[in-house]
Amino acid sequence: MYVITGASGNTGKVAASKLLKAGHQVRALVRSAGKATDLAALGAEVVENELGDRAGFERALAGATGLYLLSPPDLASNSFLAERAKLLESVVAAVAAAKVPHVVLLSSIGAHQPSGTGIVQSVAGAEKALRGAGVTSTFLRAAYFVENWGAVIPVAKQDGVLPSFLPGDLKVPMVSTADIGSLAAEALLDGPRGQRVLELAGPVDPTPKDVAATVSKILGKPIQLLEPPLDAVVPTFTSFGISADVAGLYRDLYEGIIKGRVVFEAGKAEARRGSTSLEETLRQLAQ
Ligand SMILES: NC(=O)c1ccc[n+]([C@@H]2O[C@H](COP(=O)([O-])OP(=O)(O)OC[C@H]3O[C@@H](n4cnc5c(N)ncnc54)[C@H](OP(=O)(O)O)[C@@H]3O)[C@@H](O)[C@H]2O)c1
Question: Which residue's alpha carbon is nearest to atom 36 within ligand 1?
Answer without folding.
Answer: 6
